[in-house]
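Appendix C: a fully annotated inverse folding record. The material below is reproduced so that readers can follow the format used throughout the book. The structure is listed first as C-alpha cells, followed by the designed sequence.
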C-alpha cells in the first residue's frame, strides 16, 4: 500500500489533482461573472460546472499515465523510477519545481479572487447561484402622502413596479410584496422585520400626488446598523413618471454592488407606455390583482382596470398581460368559454407588444396551466421567468403546483420551500403548501404550516378551517370541534364551510351545519353556481338527520341549479359531480354514475394527480351508497394508497364516514382498515 501512495506522489497525481481543482473553481467563478455581460444563458454556466466536475477523474488518470519531461510528454512507465542517474534526478527536480510554481500561482490567484469578492470588487452572481445575503432586500409599503387618500393605490402600484424591476436583477434576493404588505411604511423595528423577512436591507418610500405632479422619496437602509446606504427624491409629472422605477432599481443595484447584465440594464430602463392615464389604470389593476381570491369582487374590478389601460393605449403589452392573467384566473371558478377566449386574445396582444417581458411570460404560463392544462408548455414559460427574474416567487410557486399535478410530490415540496423563501409572509402560499402536505397525508407538516400562517394572520378563519380538516384526517374530532365551534363562516368561505360540513358528517352533529348552510344559501346570489354544491351538502345532512322530505326538496333545487350551471360549462367536471350527487340523492343511480364517470373522463388522475382522484372518490362513494361493494372496495384500496387533493380519505375518516356504512359488515372491511392503519402521519408537536 505504501508503494502505491509513493507511486501516486512520483507520478504527480496529488499535485495535478490540486492544481485542477483550483483551476476548475476559478473557471467557474469567471464564467459566472463574464457570461451575464454577454447575455449567455445561465444553462451555459451549468455546463461549465458539469464539464469541470467530469474532467477531474480524467485529469487524474492522465497524470498517472503520462509525465511531462524536457523531451516532451511520455508514458510515465518510460521515465526511470530510480534516482541513480544524476541527470535524471536534476530533470525530475526541475519538473517538480515547475509544477509547484504552477500550483502556487493558481492558489495565489484563487486567494486574490476570494478577497476581491469579499470586498465587493467582483460580484453579481447570476440566477444559478444563491444571491449574497448582503444583497437581499425587502421593499416596504410606500406611504401615501397625497391629500386625496383615494390615491393610495398609486403609492402601492409604484412600490410594486419598483419591486418587479428589482426581481429581474439576478444578483439580488428580493422579497415579494405579498410578504411586505403587512408592515407599516416607516416602522421603528427594522432589524426585527428584516429578520422575519430574511433580508439585510430595507427600502422605504413615500409618494405624494397632486394633480399630474408626483413627489417620491426613497431610502435604502442596512437594517442591522440603521445605516442609510442611498436616498433620493424625485419630482416628476405623470407623463414622465415611468422612468422612476428603473432609476430606483438601478441605484439600489449600484448601492448593493449587484452587477447587471446588458439585458437587465435594458429592462430597467424600458418604458411600458407613454400614456400617463393608461399607466395609472394599470397600477390600479395591479393593486386589485394582488387582492384576488375565489369569488372576490376585486377580480372583475382588476379586469376593468386593465381593460381601461389597454383602451387608452392599445399597445400597452404589460396591461394586456395583466388582463390575460385575470381572465385565465376566472376560468378556474367559472370555466365559461368567454373567459377562455378573452384570456387567449389578451395574451396574443401581450405577446405582440411585450413578447419578452416577465409579465407576458407569466401570463402565457398561467394560460397554459389554468386554461389549457398543458403543463409542459406552462413549465417552459415559468422556467424562463426563473431565469429572467430569479426573485419572482410566482415562478417557483406555479412550478410547485404543476409538479404535484404530475405526481412529483417531493419536487413540489422543494419548490414550495423555494417560493416561501422569496415570499415568507404570504399566507396564501403557506396554505397552498399545507394543502400539498395534506394531499400526501403529511398532516404534521400541514399543521406546522397553518400554525406559521396564524402567526402572520392571527384568527384567520380559512387557516383554522384547514387546521380542522387536518385534525379530522387524523381522527382528532374533539380538537377539530374546539376550533370550529366558535367560528361563523363569511359568505362564500368555501374552506371553512367545507370543514364544518365534514365535521358534521364525521361526528353526527348535523343541526348546526344545516343551519349554517341554510343561512349561506339565503344570502347567496341566485345565479351563483356555488349554490349547487351547498344544496348537495345540505341535502346530504338533511337525509342523514332523518328529514327525507326536506332532503328531497333540496336535491331537486341542486339538480335544477346544476343543469343551469352546466349549460354554460358542459365539460366542467366539478359541475358534473354536483349533478351526480343531486341525482344520487333523488335515487337516480344510472344518471348519477354516468355523470361521475364522465367527470373522471374529463379530468383523469393520469393527467392531474392532484385533482383527478377527487372524482374517483366521488364515484367510490356512489358505489358504496348503491351497494356495489366489489367496485367500492377496489376503489378504496386505490384511493388509500394515492396522494390527492385534501382532504383525502384516511382510515380515521373512513371508519366513521356515513357514505361507507353499507360496507362495514363485509369481511373485507377489517382487512382494509388493517392494511392502511398507519398511512396518515402523526400531528406536529404543539
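Designed amino acids, in order:
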Amino acid at each position: 500500500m505504501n508503494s502505491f501512495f509513493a507511486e501516486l506522489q512520483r507520478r504527480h497525481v496529488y499535485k495535478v489533482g490540486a492544481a485542477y481543482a483550483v483551476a476548475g473553481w476559478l473557471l467557474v467563478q469567471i464564467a459566472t461573472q463574464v457570461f451575464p455581460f454577454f447575455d449567455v444563458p445561465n444553462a451555459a454556466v451549468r455546463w461549465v460546472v458539469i464539464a469541470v466536475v467530469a474532467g477531474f477523474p480524467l485529469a487524474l488518470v492522465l497524470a498517472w499515465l503520462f509525465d511531462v519531461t524536457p523531451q516532451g510528454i511520455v508514458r510515465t512507465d518510460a521515465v526511470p523510477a530510480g534516482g541513480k542517474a544524476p541527470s535524471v534526478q536534476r530533470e525530475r527536480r526541475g519538473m517538480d519545481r515547475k509544477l509547484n510554481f504552477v500550483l502556487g500561482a493558481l492558489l495565489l490567484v484563487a486567494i486574490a479572487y476570494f478577497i476581491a469578492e469579499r470586498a465587493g470588487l467582483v460580484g453579481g452572481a447570476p440566477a444559478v447561484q444563491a444571491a449574497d445575503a448582503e444583497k437581499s432586500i425587502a421593499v416596504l409599503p410606500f406611504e401615501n402622502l397625497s391629500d386625496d387618500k383615494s390615491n393610495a393605490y398609486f403609492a402601492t402600484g409604484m412600490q410594486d413596479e419598483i419591486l418587479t424591476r428589482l426581481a429581474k436583477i439576478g444578483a439580488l434576493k428580493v422579497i415579494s410584496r405579498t410578504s411586505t404588505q403587512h408592515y407599516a411604511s416607516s416602522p421603528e423595528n427594522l432589524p426585527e422585520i428584516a429578520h422575519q423577512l430574511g433580508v439585510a436591507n430595507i427600502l422605504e418610500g413615500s409618494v405624494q400626488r397632486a394633480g399630474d405632479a408626483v413627489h417620491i422619496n426613497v431610502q435604502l437602509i442596512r437594517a442591522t446598523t440603521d445605516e442609510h446606504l442611498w436616498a433620493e427624491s424625485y419630482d416628476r409629472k405623470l407623463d414622465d413618471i415611468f422612468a422612476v422605477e428603473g432609476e430606483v432599481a438601478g441605484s439600489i443595484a449600484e448601492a448593493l454592488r449587484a452587477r447587471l447584465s446588458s439585458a437587465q440594464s435594458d429592462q430597467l430602463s424600458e418604458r411600458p407606455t407613454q400614456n400617463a392615464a393608461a399607466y395609472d389604470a394599470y397600477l390600479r389593476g395591479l393593486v386589485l390583482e394582488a387582492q384576488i381570491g375565489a369569488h372576490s369582487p376585486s377580480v372583475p374590478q382588476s379586469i376593468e382596470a386593465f381593460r381601461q389601460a389597454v383602451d387608452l393605449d392599445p399597445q400597452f403589452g404589460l396591461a394586456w398581460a395583466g388582463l390575460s392573467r385575470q381572465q385565465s384566473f376566472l376560468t378556474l371558478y367559472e370555466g365559461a368559454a368567454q373567459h377562455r377566449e378573452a384570456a387567449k386574445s389578451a395574451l396574443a396582444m401581450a405577446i405582440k407588444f411585450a413578447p419578452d417581458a416577465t409579465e407576458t411570460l407569466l401570463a402565457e404560463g398561467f394560460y397554459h396551466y389554468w386554461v389549457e392544462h398543458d403543463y409542459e408548455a406552462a413549465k417552459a414559460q415559468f422556467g424562463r421567468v426563473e431565469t429572467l427574474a430569479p426573485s419572482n416567487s410566482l415562478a417557483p410557486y406555479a412550478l410547485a403546483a404543476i409538479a404535484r399535478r404530475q405526481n412529483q410530490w417531493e419536487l413540489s415540496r422543494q419548490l414550495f420551500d423555494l417560493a416561501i423563501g422569496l415570499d415568507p409572509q404570504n399566507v396564501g402560499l403557506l396554505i397552498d403548501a399545507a394543502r400539498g402536505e395534506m394531499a400526501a397525508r403529511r398532516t404534521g407538516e400541514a399543521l406546522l404550516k397553518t400554525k406559521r400562517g396564524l402567526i402572520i394572520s392571527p384568527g384567520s378563519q380559512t387557516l383554522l378551517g384547514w387546521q380542522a380538516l387536518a385534525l379530522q384526517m387524523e381522527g382528532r374530532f374533539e380538537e377539530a370541534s374546539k376550533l370550529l365551534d366558535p367560528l361563523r363562516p363569511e359568505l362564500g368561505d368555501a374552506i371553512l364551510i367545507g370543514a364544518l360540513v365534514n365535521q358534521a358528517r364525521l361526528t353526527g352533529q348535523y343541526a348546526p351545519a344545516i343551519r349554517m348552510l341554510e343561512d349561506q344559501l339565503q344570502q347567496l346570489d341566485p345565479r351563483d353556481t356555488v349554490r349547487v354544491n351547498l344544496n348537495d351538502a345540505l341535502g346530504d345532512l338533511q337525509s342523514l338527520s332523518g328529514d327525507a322530505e326536506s332532503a328531497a326538496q333540496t336535491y331537486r333545487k341542486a339538480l335544477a341549479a346544476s343543469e343551469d350551471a352546466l349549460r354554460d360549462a358542459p365539460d366542467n367536471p366539478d359541475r358534473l359531480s354536483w349533478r351526480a350527487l343531486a341525482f344520487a340523492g333523488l335515487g337516480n343511480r344510472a344518471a348519477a354514475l354516468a355523470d361521475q364517470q364522465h367527470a373522471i373522463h374529463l379530468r383523469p388522475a393520469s393527467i392531474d394527480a392532484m385533482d383527478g382522484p377527487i372524482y374517483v372518490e366521488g364515484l367510490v362513494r356512489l358505489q358504496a351508497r348503491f351497494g356495489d361493494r366489489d367496485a367500492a372496495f377496489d376503489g378504496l384500496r386505490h384511493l388509500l394508497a394515492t396522494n390527492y387533493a385534501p382532504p383525502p380519505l384516511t382510515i380515521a375518516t373512513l371508519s366513521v364516514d356515513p357514505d361507507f356504512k353499507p360496507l362495514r359488515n363485509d369481511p373485507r372491511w377489517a382487512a382494509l382498515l388493517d392494511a392502511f392503519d398507519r398511512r396518515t402521519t402523526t400531528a406536529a408537536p404543539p
